[in-house]
Amino acid sequence: MQSTKQPHVLQHDESVPRRISRRELAQALLAGVAAGLISPLCSAVHPIHRHLLNAALLDSADANLSAANDNPQFLSVQQFAELDILSEAIVPGSHNARAAAFIDLLLSADTKNVQQEFLASLTAFESASQSSYRAEMIALTPPQLDDLLLAASHADSADHKHFNFLKDWIAGAYYSSESGMRELGWTPDRVFSVFPPCSHTESHS
Predict the structure, then answer these.
(1) Contact 103, 83 (CB under 8 A)
(2) Average pLDDT, whole number, for the chain?
(3) Which residues in 6-25 are b (16+ Cβ under 10 Å) and which e?
C-alpha cells in the first residue's frame, strides 16, 4: 500500500523578527532627514553622512558588530571607553545600541584628517575634565559629566566645535540603529509621514 504521509516541509518561523540591516536603517534615516521629517543630525557635511551612504561599509559594520568583538578597530581602549560614556550622556540609549563600536568601525575606514579631528575633539573633553575636576572623564559622576557637556554646548565655549562634531557622530550612530529609528517612530512594516522630534540631541545644544 502506498503511503499517504506527506513529506515534512520546514516552515519559516514568522515569530522570529527579521533582522534589519544598518543599510536599511540608514536609508530610512536619511530619507526622513531629506524630507524634513526628522533632524537628529546637525550638519549635512559631517563625515557621518558620507558613511551612512556607503552600503558596502555599512554591511561590513553589520558583520563586525555581529561578531561581538569588543576590541576597538581604531580607538585605544581608553579612548573607546571615553566615547562610550560621552555617547550615553549625549544620547541616552547609545550604549545598548553600541554607538561607540559603530563609530569606531567607521573611523577605521575614514581619512587620516577625519581621524585626527575626531581624536582632537575627544582629547578636548578629556582636557576639560582634567581642568574642571582633576579627574579622567571616565571617572566623572553623571552630574559632573552633564555639567561638562552643558558648558561645552554653549556657543561661546572653546569646546563648542568639538561638542558639535562629536554630537553628530553619536546621533548618526544611534539614530541609524534599530532602537534609534524605532524611537523616532519608524517600524519595518510602516512608513510614517511624520516622525516625532528628536529630544535627546536637543538637551545639549
Answers:
(1) yes
(2) 82
(3) eeeeeeeeeeeeeebebbbb
